[in-house]
Amino acid sequence: MKKIIPWVLAAAAVMLILPWLSVTFVQGDDGMAVCFLLFFALDPLYAICAGAYAGRDIKRLWILPVLTAFFFLAGTWLLFDWGEVAFILYAAVYLALGAASMLISGLIKKKG
Known about the structure:
Elements: H1 5-25, H2 28-54, H3 58-61, H4 63-79, H5 85-111
Helix pairs in contact: 1-2, 1-4, 2-4, 2-5, 4-5
């Protein structure tokens, strides 16, 4: 349980707090640029890192990629448009990235 808590807090920060900060404090087109940076760079990178960490102990940490995708979906629906289908696609991609990196990390650990 102690291994999960820092990653859950980090997922909440990256997927909930950073989009809120960008929407609240960055105005106009700059806010959209920051959101693009989050959606296309930081969020996928975090999903990959969380999945790679979860690969160390898949039986206990498998929830990390799922929580990452869930927090992203919750954050975007709360901040932008509730029920927007495009955000489900983004969340599915982040889940796939996290799951793939978790499986690859688990395979590398097994071989080593």
